[in-house]
Amino acid sequence: MAEPLTLHEDPRSGNCYKIRLTAALLGVPLATRSYDIMKGETRTPEFLARVNANGRIPVLQIGDGDTARFLPESNAACWYIALGSPLVPEDRFAQADVLRWMFFEQYNHEPNVATLRFWLRFVGEANLSAEQRAQIMPKRIAGSAALDLMNRHLAGRAFFCGEAASLADIALFAYTHVAEEGGFGLRDYPQVLAWIARVQALPGFVPMD
Ligand SMILES: N[C@@H](CCC(=O)N[C@@H](CS)C(=O)NCC(=O)O)C(=O)O
């Protein structure tokens, strides 16, 4: 990578971890800058003006100083780092299939599994609003459906898109391996558990914390 990379992150976030894991698996140097999202540190005028107008991490900073470019969205940042590596297959269909699982992760998985983990582990059930509390059951049902689909897909497969790990696995691993912190019982998904162990055994793997 010609330009230095800096990850603007909160280390507790699985979306940020995806990018750290991608860089680690590929041996790509990655500096980090930490924010505390619980203190609103990604909502300051400076952050909104320079780093991400959407007020969220992760953001991958490419380059330094006045010419630095900022790339929000975890899966876009993973793609930036991994394009041209074995984590993105060359075949046209296989490449689109990786994207398919990354979109699935953002639409069906992360809003349910990651949000419940955030609410229950970091915010605390007692501190949730009435609206959030009413969302627990729908998110539990939708998150369980996502895990069940993953479990069925993984039957007879080592990884999501064929026999080698790809960005699809990294995107889905980030919040799946800590899904129990959101109250999802992973024992119900044995194929998912076996796949988690395979991802953890990849050369260069780093844990979330
Ligand atoms: N779709 C985005 C989600 C980003 C996101 O929701 N970030 C959360 C932490 S995981 C955040 O920054 N929350 C702080 C806030 O909204 O103020 C991605 O994949 O990067």
What does this structure look like?
With 209 residues, the protein is an alpha+beta fold. It contains 7 helices and 4 strands; from the N terminus they run E-H-E-H-E-E-H-H-H-H-H. The mean pLDDT is 97. Glutathione binds next to helix 3.
Tell me the structural class. Answer: alpha+beta
The gyration radius over C-alpha positions equals 17 Å
Main sheet strand line-up: 2-1-3-4
**What are the secondary-structure elements, in order, as H or E?**
EHEHEEHHHHH
Overall 3D shape: globular
What is the multimeric organization of the chains shown? single chain
Compute the number of helices. 7
The parts where pLDDT drops under 50 for at least 5 residues are none
Question: What's the total count of β strands?
Answer: 4
Our estimate of the beta-strand percent is: 5-15%
> In this structure, how is the largest beta sheet organized?
4 strands, mixed
The end-to-end span amounts to 25 Å
